[in-house]
Design a protein that fits this description.
Heat Shock Protein 90, globular, 32% helix, 5-stranded antiparallel sheet, 27% strand, alpha+beta, 155 residues
């Protein structure tokens, strides 16, 4: 299919081979308002990246649900004007997700003794809470980092 609108010079569409040229690693970052209504967008990105990385169906589903739970947890802790930032580091056989928001209060803590946290631990191969204290001119942030492998691996 040919477009009658030429692309601007010096720019081209990314392809799967572009990711492969990065020694098998690529990074994708998604930023949205920290609202529950936009979590499905991030979940869809996670699912698509896992499918393109040839994860098995169970691993794709686990990653999608883990990203959903992590983002929902962070949205609950987020300042109303905060941005939910998710970075996906895609490697052969593994995806690392780092999600982060500016917290509503400087002393916000993500609880690790909830049912939601247990769900995250079950779905991901590794999960960790991240905190950055407020600094001059910046609010405190809270985040969740999780890793998921492409298929069944011993834990």
């Amino acid at each position: 299919m040919t477009s009658k609108y030429p692309r601007p010079s010096g720019r081209r569409a990314a392809s799967v081979s572009d990711a492969e040229s990065l020694d098998g690693m690529s990074t994708v970052e998604v930023r949205t308002s920290a609202t529950a209504a936009l979590i499905p967008t991030i979940r869809a990105v996670a699912s698509d990246l896992a499918a393109r990385a040839d994860f098995d169906l169970d691993a794709i589903s686990d990653l999608r649900m883990a990203v959903d739970e992590a983002c929902a947890t962070l949205v609950d802790a987020a300042d109303p004007t905060s941005v939910l930032q998710c970075r996906f580091l895609v490697r052969p056989e593994r995806i690392r997700v780092h999600a982060e928001v500016e917290s509503a209060k400087p002393d916000t803590v993500i609880s690790t003794d909830t049912f939601g946290w247990r769900v995250l631990q079950t779905l991901a191969d590794d999960v960790e809470v991240l905190h950055k204290a407020a600094a001059e001119g910046r609010r405190a942030t809270v985040g969740i980092r999780l890793d998921k492998s492409a298929g069944d691996v011993p834990r």
